[in-house]
Design goal:
By secondary structure, the chain is mainly beta. Helices cover 11% and strands 30% of the residues. The strands form 3 sheets. Strands 4-10-9-7-5-11-12 form a 7-stranded mixed β-barrel. It has a two-stranded antiparallel sheet with strand order 2-3.
């Protein structure tokens, strides 16, 4: 079994949403070998920085929080689809040809994976595509951008996916991954009361 890491490395220099300074992680040494005989540090991390999952609370008032979602929700059969030819928004017609199935976790590989700098015009999932995936009954949708949508009124893509119990995984790195079928593990930290969590997202592939 081959493991393929599709997570963003976390560092103070990493790409963050809209290049906002407050979204950059802060590593703070609390004990060092200059003042102690061991080393310890703290991490200040926005829950939407890097590779992370969103829960319904992120966009739905009274939506489910992290601990209210079963651990089994965050893994399953996944299909990576190559949409690097899409220039702006992913629409229904971009998805139909990929033989997606109910229960799939759909991972959207786009031109976003080809840069380590934040692009304000990143490729996103349009509302009509979210509706299509929701009606199909997919289990989750992941994208190689730090947001699954942009410039859409009322956060329509997020809300439609959440309403169909479909999870959202953002901040993937897929440049090194071929289109095809895999098994995804994207387990969040066991946080209580939150709308998101960092994950270490990994694809499993048969040798």
């Amino acid at each position: 079994m081959k493991l393929i890491d599709i997570s963003m490395p976390v560092s103070p220099e990493m790409m963050v949403y809209k290049n906002r300074e407050e979204k950059k992680p802060i590593f703070k040494p609390m004990k060092t070998y200059d003042n102690s005989d061991f080393y310890e540090s703290r991490l200040d991390l926005d829950l939407h920085t890097g590779t992370h999952v969103d829960t319904p609370l992120h966009m739905l008032e009274n939506g489910a929080t992290m601990e209210q979602i079963e651990l089994d929700h965050w893994h399953g059969k996944a299909k990576v689809i190559d949409l690097t030819s899409v220039s702006e928004a992913i629409h229904v017609e971009d998805l139909r040809e990929h033989a997606l199935l109910a229960g799939d976790i759909v991972l959207l590989k786009t031109k976003n994976s080809l840069t380590e700098n934040f692009d304000p015009d990143f490729v996103y999932l349009a509302e009509d595509a979210a509706e299509f995936l929701s009606q199909l009954g997919v289990k989750g949708v992941g994208i190689d951008a730090l947001g699954i949508e942009r410039a859409q009124a009322n956060h329509a893509t997020h809300k439609r996916l959440f309403e169909s119990q479909c999870f959202i995984l953002e901040g993937l790195r897929l440049a090194h991954v071929d289109a095809g079928r895999y098994y995804l593990m994207a387990l969040p930290i066991n946080l209580v009361g939150t709308e998101a969590s960092p994950v270490r997202a990994v694809l499993l592939q048969e040798d």
